[in-house]
Amino acid sequence: MSGTPTCRVLSCSAPVGRAGPALPGWQTLVVASIEPPLEIGAEATSKLVALCIDANDPPGLARFWAVALGWEIDDETDDVISLVPTDDTRFRIDVAPVPERKGAGRNRLHLDLTTTSLDDRRQSVASFVELGARHIDIGQRPDEGHVVLGDPEGNEFCIIEPGNNFLAGCGRLGSITCDGTRDVGYFWSEVLGWPLVWDHDEETAIRAPDGTGPLITWGGPPLSPKIGKNRLHLDIAPSAHVDQQAEVDRLVSLGATRIDIGQGDVDWVVMADPDGNEFCVLTPR
User: Disulfide check for 71: which of 52, 55, 83, 268 has CB 3.0–4.6 Å away?
Assistant: First the structure.
């Protein structure tokens, strides 16, 4: 990164102005002024199509997130309900039915939502609770600026304090925030062709090359224990001119593995990134 970033605080585990110890299994992100993206050497051959959320009640969870993000419910089938962005985000959210309920452990992926003022943060929290969210304790300190909630099915998410420099310039959806190593941040940068906008102390972040939409961040070790399939995962797809199998082979060369989660005979390929997190490779588009 050219120049010297303005380090201030950590998002989702320490308050503005003070660095705190990393909480086991939770993100610690250095807050910095985001500078122009780093150039990467290879052209992307996959694009991020969707963030997928497992749900016991897809219609209910989809309605919650549509209101929380200000997105629209676009498509509803027997299997999946899709939310489409109303801002400059380039991917959708798919809410898919599963019989299993969320376990007691924390998700490896969660969403960070931005706010514009203290009143906005206060009103956002109140409206989310009214919609079915609840306050949860993941070890955060009372003086921290963000608020941790669980959605109606218990998936953790954070309401970030106004003035957080790390997410400056992002819309309501500030970040897909992940437990993950530095290497997996590099992996996803290569997969999507999204340049690194932060790489410091084992923490990485990437963003779309045009600088729009949310960040995807990885907070470095320690990682939350992985118990079963993640309830949130990414769906990607190669470009229309790229063969799906050729893209799978490229991903394997980058460190991904093919896995079987009982998906059966489907036209997508289920893989795991170098940290063991599932993702799907859809047909070219």
Answer: 83
Q: Determine, yes or no, domain membership for 98.
A: yes
Number of domains in the chain: 1
Sorted by sequence, the CB contacts under 8 Å of residue 115 that are 6+ apart come out as: 121, 124, 159, 160, 161, 162
- Pairing type for strands 109-113 and 156-159 reads parallel
CATH number at residue 242: 3.10.180.10
Query: In sequence order, what are the residues at sequence separation of 6 or more whose Cβ sits closer than 8 angstroms to the Cβ of residue 60?
Result: 132, 152
Using the Cα atoms of residue 52, residue 56, residue 60 and residue 61 in order, give the sign of their dihedral: negative
* Cα 205 to Cα 219: distance, rounded to the nearest angstrom: 9
* Contacts within 8 Å (CB) and 24+ apart, 99-102: 99/56, 100/54, 100/228, 101/56, 101/153, 102/153, 102/154, 102/155, 102/231
Range of the structural domain that residue 87 is part of: 46-103+226-281
183, amino acid identity:
D
Q: Which helix (H) or strand (E) segment is 81 a member of?
A: strand 81-84
Structural domain contains residue 59: yes
Is residue 70 one of the residues assigned to a domain? yes
Per-residue pLDDT of the chain (285 residues; tens, 9 = 90+): 333 232 222 335 332 222 333 333 333 343 444 444 444 444 557 999 999 999 999 999 999 999 999 999 997 776 899 999 999 999 999 999 999 999 888 999 999 999 999 999 999 999 999 999 999 988 777 777 899 999 999 999 999 999 999 999 999 999 999 999 999 999 999 999 999 999 999 999 999 999 999 999 999 998 888 888 999 999 999 999 999 999 999 999 999 999 999 888 899 999 999 999 999 999 999
The torsion angle over the Cα atoms of residues 93, 247, 221 and 227, rounded to 10 degrees, is 60
What the block records as the tokens of 2 is 């050219």
Strands 29-30 and 10-11: antiparallel
